[in-house]
Amino acid sequence: MDQIILTPFTEEKLRNVIKEELGNILGSYLSQPVRESGKQVLNFEEVRERYGFSKSHLYNLTSKRLIPHSRRGKYLTFSVDQVENWLLENQIPTQEQIDKKADEYLSKKEVLYAK
């Protein structure tokens, strides 16, 4: 049988504990990717609406085979996961990432010249 231990909390301390727990719960919930629907495969119009592409731009991407897609007869289909991965492929590095990479590069050069 579990024992219940009561400790005196001030109203302020109780509010802080509740805020912290709600923050933990919301933080883990909000960090999960949100999908508008459970669909894994989208058609041409759904991709346009979801990602904000113009019709001509999306046709251009598919005709040049720049965006991952499949063709079913005359219809184009897109995997949600593949399109989202494609969108994230060419991320611009932050200044912090650039500085870190430069430091790593320079430290390797220093080791080479020290020999």
TrEMBL record:
InterPro entries with a match to the protein in the record: DNA-bd_dom_put_sf (IPR009061), HTH_17 (IPR041657)
Pfam families in the cross-refs: HTH_17 (PF12728)
All residue ranges annotated as the Helix-turn-helix domain in the record: 42-90
GO terms assigned for molecular function: DNA binding
Alphabetical UniProt keywords: DNA-binding
Protein name as it appears in the record: DNA-binding protein
Organism of origin: Ancylomarina salipaludis
